[in-house]
C-alpha cells in the first residue's frame, strides 16, 4: 500500500522593505497600493527597524507628502512653480509617543518577526485626498511627469523641523487608488442622436448601448450600434473610440485622448432607407498607448503592470467637479461619416473603467460586506491571521531612494 502524502500550500505574504543608504534604519510596508473606499481609506501601516545604539538620543520621524505637478518642470522660469508639495501628516515614530498604539495584524506579525528594535507607525490619508495619477510624458519632456504622487519619508533628526541627512533618510513612493463598487449595477448606458440634412428630408438616427456601466481594466468594452437611415445621405464608414477625459483641477484645464479605436466599412455604405446593427468590441489598455504623451496612468510609470488611470469616484451626494487632483472619466465615441457634404454624426456614451474590488467576482458579490475603517475582519480572515511567520517574503522597495550618500 502506498503512503498518502498531504501537502500544505502556504500563501506567501509579500512585505516591501527599504533601507537608508547608511544601512541603519529599515522601513517595512505590507503593501504599496492603498485603497480609497469612498467612506474610508486604507491606513498606511508599517514597521521601522533601527540598529542598536544608533540614535544616541536622536529621534526617528515619518511623514507622508503628496506632490501635485500640473505643469512641465522645464517650463518653470523666474521662480514660477508648476507643482505643489504638501505634508499631509507627520509624526515621531521612535521613541513612540503613545504607550499603546493601534496596530493592524500584519504589523503585529512583523513586530514578532523583527524583534525588539522594531517600531510600528500608522498614517491616515486626509479626507478628499486625490488618487495617484501620472500623465505619460512625451519624448521631449525632460523633468518629472505631471500628476499626483504620494511619498512616505522616514528620517533621523533632533526634532520635527530637522530635515534629516540623506544618508539616514529613506523615501518610499506609494499609490492611492480606487476600486469599483462591489456590484456593477444594472443600468446600461446608452445614447440616441439624430441628424437632419439641409435641403433633404428625413433624419439619420444613431443609437449606441453599452453592455455594462463599469468595466474592469483589461476587459472588452462592448458597444451595440444601431443605425437607421431615414435620410437621403449614405453612411460611408463607422469609427469607434474609447476616449479618456482628464480634468486638471489646479489650472482648470481639460483635455481628451483616444486610448482605443476602430474603423470599419462593414455594412457600408448604409444607403437611404437601410439600417445596420452590430456589436463592436474595444479594449482600452495602457500597453497599447506606451509612447503617447498625456495618457493618464494609475500611479508610477516604472511599474510593469501599470494600468490606465481609473475613473474618479466621489461620495454619494458630492459633485465630481469638487474632486481634487486629476479627475478622470471615460466614454465610447461613435462617428458616422456621411461624406464631404454630409458631415458626421457623433455621440458619446460615458462609462467607468476601474479595478475590481477584492472578492467582487460575480460569485462572491452577494457576500460582500462593508469594511470598517481599519479593515480588521478582512485581515483576520486572510493569510495574515496565520501564526506561521515563515510565509512572509521580503522584497526590496527599489524605487525613489533619496539621492545616494554624499
Automatic annotation (TrEMBL):
<dbReference type="InterPro" id="IPR014756">
    <property type="entry name" value="Ig_E-set"/>
</dbReference>
<dbReference type="GO" id="GO:0016060">
    <property type="term" value="P:negative regulation of phospholipase C-activating phototransduction signaling pathway"/>
</dbReference>
<dbReference type="InterPro" id="IPR000698">
    <property type="entry name" value="Arrestin"/>
</dbReference>
<dbReference type="GO" id="GO:0001664">
    <property type="term" value="F:G protein-coupled receptor binding"/>
</dbReference>
<dbReference type="GO" id="GO:0007601">
    <property type="term" value="P:visual perception"/>
</dbReference>
<dbReference type="GO" id="GO:0002031">
    <property type="term" value="P:G protein-coupled receptor internalization"/>
</dbReference>
<dbReference type="GO" id="GO:0045494">
    <property type="term" value="P:photoreceptor cell maintenance"/>
</dbReference>
<dbReference type="InterPro" id="IPR014753">
    <property type="entry name" value="Arrestin_N"/>
</dbReference>
<dbReference type="GO" id="GO:0007608">
    <property type="term" value="P:sensory perception of smell"/>
</dbReference>
<dbReference type="GO" id="GO:0005737">
    <property type="term" value="C:cytoplasm"/>
</dbReference>
<feature type="signal peptide">
    <location>
        <begin position="1"/>
        <end position="17"/>
    </location>
</feature>
<dbReference type="GO" id="GO:0007165">
    <property type="term" value="P:signal transduction"/>
</dbReference>
<dbReference type="Pfam" id="PF02752">
    <property type="entry name" value="Arrestin_C"/>
</dbReference>
<dbReference type="InterPro" id="IPR011021">
    <property type="entry name" value="Arrestin-like_N"/>
</dbReference>
<dbReference type="Pfam" id="PF00339">
    <property type="entry name" value="Arrestin_N"/>
</dbReference>
<protein>
    <recommendedName>
        <fullName>Phosrestin-1</fullName>
    </recommendedName>
</protein>
<dbReference type="InterPro" id="IPR014752">
    <property type="entry name" value="Arrestin-like_C"/>
</dbReference>
<dbReference type="GO" id="GO:0016028">
    <property type="term" value="C:rhabdomere"/>
</dbReference>
<feature type="domain" description="Arrestin C-terminal-like">
    <location>
        <begin position="200"/>
        <end position="358"/>
    </location>
</feature>
<keyword id="KW-0732">Signal</keyword>
<comment type="similarity">
    <text>Belongs to the arrestin family.</text>
</comment>
<dbReference type="InterPro" id="IPR011022">
    <property type="entry name" value="Arrestin_C-like"/>
</dbReference>
<keyword id="KW-0716">Sensory transduction</keyword>
<keyword id="KW-0844">Vision</keyword>
Amino acid at each position: 500500500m502506498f503512503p498518502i502524502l498531504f501537502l500544505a500550500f502556504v500563501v506567501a505574504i509579500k512585505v516591501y522593505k527599504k533601507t537608508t543608504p547608511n544601512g541603519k534604519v529599515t522601513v517595512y510596508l505590507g503593501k504599496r497600493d492603498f485603497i480609497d473606499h469612498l467612506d474610508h481609506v486604507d491606513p498606511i501601516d508599517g514597521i521601522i527597524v533601527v540598529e542598536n545604539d544608533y540614535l544616541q538620543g536622536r529621534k526617528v520621524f515619518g511623514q507622508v507628502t503628496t506632490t501635485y505637478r500640473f505643469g512641465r518642470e522645464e517650463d518653470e522660469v523666474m521662480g514660477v512653480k508648476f507643482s505643489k508639495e504638501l505634508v499631509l501628516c507627520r509624526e515621531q515614530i521612535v521613541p513612540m509617543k503613545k504607550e499603546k498604539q493601534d496596530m493592524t495584524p500584519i504589523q503585529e506579525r512583523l513586530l514578532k518577526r523583527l524583534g525588539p528594535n522594531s517600531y510600528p507607525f500608522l498614517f491616515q490619508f486626509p479626507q478628499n485626498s486625490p488618487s495617484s495619477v501620472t500623465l505619460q510624458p512625451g519624448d521631449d519632456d525632460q523633468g518629472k511627469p505631471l500628476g499626483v504622487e504620494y511619498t512616505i519619508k522616514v528620517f533621523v533628526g533632533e526634532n520635527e523641523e530637522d530635515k534629516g541627512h540623506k544618508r539616514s533618510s529613506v523615501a518610499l513612493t506609494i499609490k492611492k487608488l480606487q476600486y469599483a463598487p462591489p456590484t456593477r449595477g444594472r443600468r446600461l448606458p446608452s445614447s440616441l442622436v439624430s441628424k437632419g440634412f439641409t435641403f433633404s428630408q428625413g433624419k439619420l438616427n444613431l443609437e449606441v448601448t453599452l453592455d455594462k456601466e463599469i468595466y474592469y481594466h483589461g476587459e472588452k468594452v462592448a458597444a451595440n450600434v444601431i443605425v437607421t437611415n431615414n435620410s437621403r445621405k449614405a453612411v460611408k464608414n463607422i469609427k469607434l473610440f474609447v476616449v479618456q477625459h482628464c480634468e486638471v483641477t489646479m489650472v482648470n484645464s481639460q483635455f481628451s485622448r483616444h486610448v482605443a479605436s476602430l474603423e470599419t466599412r462593414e455594412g457600408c455604405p448604409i444607403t437611404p432607407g437601410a439600417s445596420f446593427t452590430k456589436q463592436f468590441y474595444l479594449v482600452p489598455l495602457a500597453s497599447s498607448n506606451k509612447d503617447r504623451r498625456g495618457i493618464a496612468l494609475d500611479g508610477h510609470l516604472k511599474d510593469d503592470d501599470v494600468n490606465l488611470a481609473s475613473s474618479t469616484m466621489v461620495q454619494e451626494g458630492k459633485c465630481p467637479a469638487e474632486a481634487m487632483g486629476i479627475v478622470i472619466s471615460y466614454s465610447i465615441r461613435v462617428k458616422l461619416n456621411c461624406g464631404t457634404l454630409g458631415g458626421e454624426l457623433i455621440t458619446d456614451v460615458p462609462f467607468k473603467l476601474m479595478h475590481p474590488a477584492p472578492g467582487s467576482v460575480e460569485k462572491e458579490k452577494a457576500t460582500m460586506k462593508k469594511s470598517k475603517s481599519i479593515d480588521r475582519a478582512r485581515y483576520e480572515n486572510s493569510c495574515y491571521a496565520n501564526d506561521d511567520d515563515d510565509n512572509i517574503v521580503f522584497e526590496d522597495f527599489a524605487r525613489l531612494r533619496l539621492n545616494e550618500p554624499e
